[in-house]
Task: inverse folding
């Protein structure tokens, strides 16, 4: 478990520092970037939020609150609280046209910064959980690497960066083309900002 949580945080940090991100959309409070590598498409959403970084961190690290702003989360429950900083959740997503509803078993690892210039981190990856094998009612899907980095700008504002590495299997959810997917990403990001503020 210690290795899994370490590699969860490390994978997100590695994704965040990769070179070659292309900006695809710039709006007032948010920017969307993409990064393509083989069959893996990563995206980054940078949001300017008028709340302190510690508040954003506490709201974003509790995934049970995610349904309030992310319509891709239908249900979310804690399967196991591994430690103060690690929880395993079961998430279900609504069905899309012609697809079964999907479900995920994810490990969420949260870390507070050790030094003032470091971000708060909430890292997410899929794990297997013996107590919950795949069910025929759902299409069990995998999150390779996702999560948030929250950088403090001032005592009352922060920059929230959301990252997600998407394999082709997740693409039906984001629409086949990037213009469609960036619209869905953009709407979700605006809901996230509204929720945090």
Result:
């Amino acid at each position: 478990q210690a290795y899994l949580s370490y590699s969860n945080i490390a994978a997100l940090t590695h994704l965040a520092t990769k070179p070659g991100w292309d900006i695809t959309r710039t709006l007032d409070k948010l920017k969307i970037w993409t990064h393509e590598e083989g069959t893996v498409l990563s995206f980054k959403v940078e949001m300017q939020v008028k709340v302190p970084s510690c508040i954003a961190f506490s709201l974003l690290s509790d995934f049970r609150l995610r349904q309030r702003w992310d319509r891709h989360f239908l249900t979310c429950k804690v399967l196991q609280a591994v430690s103060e900083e690690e929880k395993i959740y079961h998430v279900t997503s609504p069905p899309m046209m012609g697809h079964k509803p999907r479900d995920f078993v994810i490990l969420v690892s949260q870390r507070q910064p050790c030094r003032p210039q470091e971000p708060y981190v909430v890292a997410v990856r899929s794990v297997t959980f013996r107590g919950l094998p795949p069910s025929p009612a759902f299409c069990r899907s995998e999150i390779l690497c996702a999560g948030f980095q929250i950088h403090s700008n001032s005592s009352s504002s922060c920059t929230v960066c959301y990252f997600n590495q998407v394999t082709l299997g997740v693409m039906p959810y984001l629409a086949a083309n990037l213009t469609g997917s960036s619209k869905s990403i953009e709407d979700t990001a605006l809901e996230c900002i509204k929720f945090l503020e």
Observations:
- The first strand starts at residue 22 and ends at 26.
- Residues 1-196 form a domain with the Alpha-D-Glucose-1,6-Bisphosphate; Chain A, domain 4 fold (CATH 3.30.530.20).
